């Protein structure tokens, strides 16, 4: 499975957009990019996923570069409740989610 | 109840005790998973079940014994645990395993072994 690289931490002001980057330069053509988040001591929450095209849902937008080697998760209007660890995971058909250390996003008032 | 539920949410046990963790999914999925998250560490996959059959055991010690009686229920039986087994145990489900189906997680059971 392809490895991902994320910054260990980021800050964002409340009400502003939070843009969380992820590098996955070894991604294969059939591997999806998944994003989860984990609020302290809770189960990971699914956010969004994509293969090639940009995706948007009620929680976030996912922008995948044309070469698929990187992506950005966008939380359009961050709130204090969005403070969490965000995981970018590349998933292939084996279905194995391999979690890294993720990015700790701190939303500040 | 909706989604994936886990009971108990917190458990304290001695090293000689036997206890069980329960997971139930209300999503109509056929695959269920156990993960372990130790302090300051990423989630680690422990077991995978697909249509009640175990398809993966990620070199988990035998003091952890999973059971999947049907596609909606998953148990993790614990016996003779060690203090280093203290962790957050998470259950997840997906449509099927061995695919890119989205996994949905339960809230977890916080286990403390004394």
Description:
- The complex is a heterodimer of chains A (109) and B (114).
- Chain A has no helices and nine strands.
- With 109 residues, chain A is an all-beta fold.
- Chain B is mainly beta and 114 residues long.
- Helices cover 0% and strands 56% of the residues of chain B.
- Chain B contains no helices and eleven strands.
- In chain B, the strands form two sheets. In chain B, strands 2, 4, 5, 6, 9, 10 and 11 form a seven-stranded mixed sheet that branches. Chain B has a four-stranded antiparallel sheet with strand order 1-3-8-7, with no helix packed on it.
- In chain B, β7 and β8 form a beta hairpin.
- The termini of chain B are far apart.
- The interface between A and B is medium-sized, with 22 and 25 residues.
User: What is the number of E strands of chain B?
Assistant: 11
Shape of chain A: globular
Mean model confidence by pLDDT of chain B: 93
Distance between termini of chain B? 32 Å
Helix content of chain A: under 10%
Order of helices and strands of chain A: EEEEEEEEE
**What are the segments of chain A in which pLDDT stays under 50 over at least 5 consecutive residues?**
none
Helical element count of chain A? 0
Report strand order across the widest sheet of chain A.
Answer: 1-9-8-3-4
Please state roughly what percent of the residues of chain B sit in beta strands, choosing from under 5%, 5-15%, 15-25%, 25-35%, 35-45% or over 45%: over 45%
Order of helices and strands of chain B: EEEEEEEEEEE
- By helix and strand content of chain B, what is the structural category? mainly beta
Could you list the spans of chain B in which at least 5 consecutive residues all have pLDDT below 50?
none
What is the distance, rounded to the nearest whole angstrom, between the alpha carbons of the first and last residues of chain A? 38 Å
| Percent helix range of chain B | under 10%
Query: Mind telling me the C-alpha Rg of chain A?
Result: 13 Å
Largest sheet of chain B: 7 strands, mixed
Helical stretch count of chain B? 0
Estimated structural class of chain A: mainly beta
